[in-house]
Each structure stands twice: as C-alpha cells, then as structure tokens.
Amino acid sequence: MSVVSALPFLKPVYMRPPISPGRQRRHTLPASEFRSLSPEDAISVFEIEREAFISVSGECPLHLDEVRHFLNLCPELSLGWFEEGRLVAFIIGSLWDQEKLNMDALTFHKPHGTTVHIHVLAVHRTFRQQGKGSILMWRYLQYLRCLPFVRRAMLMCEDFLVPFYEKCGFKAQGPCEITVGMLAFVEMQFPVRGHAFMRRNSGC
Q1: φ and ψ at 12, to 5 degrees?
Q2: How many CA atoms lie less than 13 Å away from 104 in the CB half-sphere?
Q3: Backbone angles phi, psi at 55, to 5 degrees
Q4: What pLDDT does residue 111 have?
Q5: Beta bridge partners of 123
Q6: N or C of the chain: less Cβ packing under 10 Å?
Q7: Are strands 171-180 and 183-191 parallel, antiparallel or unpaired?
Q8: Where are the beta strands (DSSP E) in the chain?
Q9: H-assigned helices in the chain
Q10: What is the CA radius of gyration of the chain?
C-alpha cells in the first residue's frame, strides 16, 4: 500500500452544528478538520511551536527553516488539526533508519527508513488542557498503522512529559543520545508493527 492510498484515513468526519429549520445553509469552513500539513502552513506551525516550547525549555524542537524542510520532504508524515480553518495543534515526523536516535535524526529524513521519528507535537495555547494533544497523537498513530513500511514510532522528550506519552502507548527506552545545551531527554518508542487486527478494522 502506498502512502497515497493510506491518506483517506486522514479524511475527517466534519463536525458542524445542526442547521435550524428555515435557516439557509451557508458555505463555511468545517468546524474540525485533520489533514497533512504543507509548506504553506510552516509559519503557523512555527508560531505555535515557539510559544509552546520557548517558555518551558527555551528551545524549539524545529526552527522555521527545519519546519519547511520536513514539510517539503515528507508532508505525509505530518498531521494538523484545524478548527474553522485555523491550525490549533500539529505533529511533524520524518523517517529514520537506525535503532537509536542521534543528532542526525534532528535534521535528516531517511526515505527508506521504517521508523517514524516524531519531532514535535504542539497545541495552541488557547486550546490546551482540552485533551487535544492526546486525540491528535491517537489519530496520528492510527494513520501510521495504515503505512505498511512503518514498524515503529520514536520520539525524545523531557522527563516531565514521559507520563503523557506513556498514556499514548509509548514506552521509555532510557536516556537519549541527543542533548541540546543543558537539556537531556528520554527516548520513547511505540510499536506499530504487528497490529494486523487494527489494520483490518481501521479503514486502511
């Protein structure tokens, strides 16, 4: 199965309010939409990411040029959540071809890799504490199960985020080889391979 054939899984069930009797239907943006990101979304992505991470750790996982880099190379490994046309949360990933993450994983996309390296998940500040991060990650992992070449997903995070990702199904693998300044990270992994039952029942 190609990436293109798996993309229909991302088609959202648009959630619109009911139309009152006698009220004329108007052409409006869908209330809620999930889709892959494009390079045109890069600035919106970076603004959300910068606000989310700079205030906490002082570092962004991806700078603007890196956001554009990955959205040009592998947009199919990104997922954005839009509310009435406005980006409110997103994930950006790329392919990786080694057992562990290292510094090259921060900037390289390995087209023949079988691991999806999740670089960043971020939610707009006005939409936090609503469970959107968990919902978006769930949808993203379901989508990855539709891609036959993907065997696992990996990410690195600070200690305080480990419980969040464990609730999403990731398992801590120990300290990550990557450090950024004084920041150290935990490497986490989610097994995508072996979910044949899930694939049969996910619309893939």
Answers
A1: -80, 160
A2: 9
A3: -70, -20
A4: 96
A5: 89
A6: N
A7: antiparallel
A8: 33-35, 78-83, 86-96, 115-123, 152-157, 171-180, 183-191
A9: 3-6, 42-54, 64-73, 132-144, 162-167, 196-200
A10: 17
Residue 85 φ/ψ, nearest 5 degrees: 85, -5
Sheet of strand 115-123: strand arrangement: 33-35, 78-83, 86-96, 115-123, 152-157, 183-191, 171-180
**pLDDT tens per residue, the chain (204 residues)?**
444 445 444 544 444 444 455 555 555 556 889 999 999 999 999 999 999 887 666 778 899 999 999 999 999 999 999 999 999 999 999 999 999 999 999 999 999 999 999 999 999 998 888 999 999 999 999 999 999 999 999 999 999 999 999 999 999 999 999 998 888 999 999 999 754 444 455 555
CA distances from 74 to 70, 102, 122, 181 (A): 6, 19, 18, 28
Question: Encoding tokens for residue 202?
Answer: 């996910």
The two three-digit tokens of residue 185, written as one number: 């990270």
Q: Which residue has the tokens 């609730």?
A: 167
Burial of 121 (0-12, 13-18, 19+ CB in 10 A): buried
